[in-house]
Specification:
The protein folds into three domains: 10-155, Alpha-D-Glucose-1,6-Bisphosphate, Chain A, domain 3 (3-Layer(aba) Sandwich), CATH 3.40.120; 159-366, 3-Layer(aba) Sandwich (Alpha-D-Glucose-1,6-Bisphosphate, Chain A, domain 3), CATH 3.40.120; 372-457, Alpha-D-phosphohexomutase, C-terminal domain (TATA-Binding Protein). Strands 1, 2, 3, 4, 5, 6 and 7 form a seven-stranded mixed beta sheet that branches. β20 (411-415) and β21 form a beta hairpin. It has 14 helices and 22 strands. The chain has helices at 28-44, 60-73, 86-94, 128-139, 157-167, 189-195, 225-233, 261-272, 290-297, 309-319, 343-354, 361-366, 384-397, 440-457, and strands at 18-21, 49-54, 77-83, 100-104, 113-120, 123-124, 150-153, 175-179, 199-203, 238-242, 249-253, 258-259, 280-284, 301-305, 323-325, 331-333, 372-373, 377-380, 404-406, 411-415, 418-424, 430-437. The protein has 466 residues and is of the alpha/beta class. Its EC number is 5.4.2.8. Keywords: Isomerase, Magnesium, Metal-binding, Phosphoprotein. Residues 12-137, 159-256, 261-367 form the Alpha-D-phosphohexomutase alpha/beta/alpha domain.
């Protein structure tokens, strides 16, 4: 006797979005059901207008069509904005095109993966709100009013570009490298930054869902090598790299040195807080310990928060924070009314700050103290559950000898001259770790404490990446 298959895989419903492998657990059928569940949730509230966008992945057109069909089956009115970066979908919602949005995107993940980011009343959905969609599908609580549904198309790209160019003015011409990584920002980034007055040197600015040049994740240093080479070869002021759907930014200075987002946050805080004294600046647990004092020195109030772009934005709204960001590259700057994480917009705001001085960006960033730090290390597990269980076991039995242990999101062990972090990722079946210290010797000593703990508890049979 065959075992009945579930309507839809529960594994799709993650902490910040829906995510899966195309044609495996993420199919047109499953996305149609999710679209219908989102539409049913809206119809329960007496609402029915929603905007739908998609990134440049090969599976995105079919999945976007399935989402639209599901929304229409519930009787929703859909505005299809087509291929756009995720922040342009957010812009469409904030601009009033519709109060709700559905974005088909695999973000920074490999080409065979895809997903859905969901915006309800301008707020990205997360945790239990996403789980409720799964529960609704499994209970069969779905509206069936296809005759009431309709779809129209709209071009929102020009309005987005116009808004950014109206907001941002560079006092001098900067020579910049742009690495769109064949992601959705390739649609408009090159022209946008030319319109802002930059001399642009483009890399991989053609949308290609195969991502033939490098993975669409600029937080991995290997994926920045082409940009670093370009910046040095052309003696550019700065290089900017975006992830696959454009909501993350990583930069490199004119020497090719990586400017991690926590250092970008410090510079933006120093620029913004004099006009916004006493406002909160939020940052996630993966950011440098130097942020706290830098924010205070600039006249702001620092606030550490849980990692996750949806949770960051929620924290910022609740506390009226003017600026917030994650080490992963999600940055939100709200002083001019933009309420969402947008790699291109933040890149433009960063250029605006840098253009106010005649000094090279590398010299400007050199004023910001920098210790010894690592990128994120990832320890892979067979499943999200296995990674979570390993993290829980470690937290229960850790011997990290920390002066202060922060358990807001995983474990951040702080010492007099550095810190180490371990947490279970919500976007991959991994434990992610990061370290920072004042000297290379102390950095290695802190890493050694974490290594010893992992080996003592036998958390993984795999070789550690640090």
């Amino acid at each position: 006797m065959s075992i009945p298959q579930p309507l839809i895989s529960h594994a799709l419903f993650r902490a910040y979005d829906v995510r899966g492998v195309y044609a495996d657990n993420l199919t047109e059928h499953s996305v149609r059901l999710i679209g219908q569940a989102i539409g049913s949730q809206l119809r329960d509230r007496g609402e029915q207008t929603v905007v739908v966008g998609r990134d440049g992945r090969l599976s995105s057109p079919a999945l976007a069509q399935a989402a639209i069909e599901g929304l229409m089956a519930a009787g929703c009115h859909v505005t299809d904005v087509g291929l756009v970066p995720t922040p342009v979908l957010y812009f469409a919602v904030q601009s009033g095109l519709a109060p709700h949005g559905v974005m088909i995107t695999g973000s920074h993940n490999p080409p065979d993966q895809n997903g859905i980011k969901i915006v309800i009343n301008g707020e990205c959905q997360y945790n239990e709100r996403i789980q409720r969609l799964y529960e609704r599908i499994m209970r069969g609580e779905l509206w069936h009013q296809p005759a009431a549904g309709r779809v129209q198309t709209a071009n929102i790209l020009n309005a987005y570009q116009h808004t950014v160019c109206q907001q941002i003015h560079l006092q001098r011409r900067l020579r910049i490298g742009l690495d769109c990584g064949n992601g959705a920002t390739a649609l408009l980034a090159e022209q946008l930054f030319r319109d802002l007055g930059c001399e642009v040197y483009p890399l991989f600015c053609e949308v290609d869902g195969n991502f033939p040049n490098h993975s669409p994740d600029p937080t991995q240093p290997a994926n920045l090598q082409a940009l670093q080479t370009l910046v040095r070869a052309q003696a550019l002021d700065i290089g900017m790299a975006f992830d696959g759907d454009g909501d993350r930014l990583i930069a490199v200075d004119g020497n090719g040195h990586i400017l991690w987002p926590d250092r970008i946050l410090i510079l933006l805080a120093q620029a913004v807080l004099p006009q916004q004294p006493g406002r909160m600046v939020a940052y996630d647990v993966k950011c440098t310990y130097r942020l706290d004092q830098a924010i205070r020195d600039a006249g702001g109030v620092p606030s550490m928060c849980i990692s996750g772009h949806s949770l960051l934005k929620k924290h910022m709204r609740e506390h009226n924070a003017v600026l917030g960001g994650e080490f992963s590259g999600h940055i939100v700057l709200r002083d001019r009314g933009m309420e969402y994480d947008d790699g291109m917009y933040i890149a433009a705001r960063l250029l605006e700050v840098l253009a106010q001085e005649t000094a090279a960006p590398a010299q400007i960033f050199a004023r910001i103290p920098e210790g010894c730090s690592t990128p994120e290390h990832k320890v892979y597990f067979a499943s999200y559950e296995a990674a979570g269980e390993a993290m829980a076991l470690w937290m229960q039995h850790q011997q990290l000898q920390a002066q202060r242990l922060i358990t807001l999101d995983g474990m951040r062990a702080e010492y007099a001259d550095g810190w180490g972090l371990a947490r279970a990722s919500n976007t991959s079946p991994t434990l992610t770790l990061r370290f920072e210290a004042d000297t290379p010797e102390r950095l290695e000593a802190i890493r050694a404490l974490f290594r010893a703990d992992i080996q003592r508890l036998q958390l993984t049979p795999e070789a550690l990446p640090f």
